[in-house]
Fold this protein.
Amino acid sequence: MKNSLRIRFTVTAIVSVLLVLVVMVSVINLMNYNKVVSDSDRVLGMLLENGGSFPEHMKPEQGIQPEPPKEMHGGDRTESPELAFETRYFSVVIDSNGNVLSTDTGNIAAVNDDAAAAYATDIYGSHKNEGFVGDYRYSCTSTSDGDTLIVFCDCGPGLSNFRSFLGISILISACSLILISIVVFLLSGRAVSPIVESHERQKRFITDAGHEIKTPLAIINADADVLLAETSEDNEWVTDIKKQARRLADLTDELILLSKTEEGSYVPVREELDLTAITEQQIELFRVAAAGNGRIIESSVEPDVRITGDSKAIERLVSILLDNAVKYCPEGKTVKVCLQRSGKNAIIEVSNPTDSPIDEKSLDYLFDRFYRADASRNSETGGHGIGLSVAKAITEAHSGKIAAYKDGNDIIRFRAVLRL
């Protein structure tokens, strides 16, 4: 149990840290990318306003730059006097028929006039006003002559920095996640130890208390037998004492079985069993009781289904499923039992109608100890509310699975899968 809790604790912590890292890395890199795009768009806006070039006072060839601004708000490079020297750009003018009228590639070395015309033609045909072509950010506007001016700005350096930062941030996050995982796993033992110790004490208490309770229960039962033997007629008070003592003894046995299963000390006896014979025997035992209460049991049992397991435990499993179905089946309705092979598994299914619609959410809790879907029926149906928990423990001890399903609005079906 401790290892299982440590793994779950570690996985939960890792997933939590991973989600935080993913959000942080995504937000930071998205902001970084948006900064590159917004800076490029501001430069493109300036170029479009001036017909595809910088204002005269900012052109590099003029050689004289104005005084730099006293403060650049938010590090905005569009306010820098060095902007015209740093920016690589080119522009193309296209008429309304899609013909290239002019190109200006004097401020970039990587693109010639033919390449610029090809870029512009493709963009003009796409009818997009802005976007990327490779590492070039572009934007379009209409001129006073009715032509289209397309300006391209080289975002290569900014995008290169963005990609480098993205790679580094992912690498650092991955390394951090690995280190955090190691540290969390090493420290998880201390984190779960109090829970494990508390759970172990609880299981030991149930087992020890169960054994201690069995002795006085046996004495009470024996004394009740003596009292009944000495009275001339049945005494309803003594009979009730015996009934409740027997019920408490059964509950104690089931709690001890559950506790041993959780401790791992319950190891079922492995022997070849005729599951067909066990199922048919249990059906016949319950058929009489069901008929007396106005219920019908219909069965479909495949012959010669054999498994390996503990005969008493498997009998208990089938008995619990039948007892549960008969108890909660309305009068005049039918309980259906099915046993069949499916590949390397034997499948036992028991279904019954219910008095009221089944809540889908309650199916997840039916195998919890003392859980009852309808608490108001405790006195009416009897039982301890622990039978299905025992059925689950027996099934899992035999490396099987058990689950509850909802068929329609008012039919519940229990399905136990056991290996052949």
Q: What stands out?
A: The chain has two domains: 2-162, 271-419. Confidence is low (pLDDT under 50) at residues 375-379. Residues 48 and 276 are 86 Å apart (CA to CA).
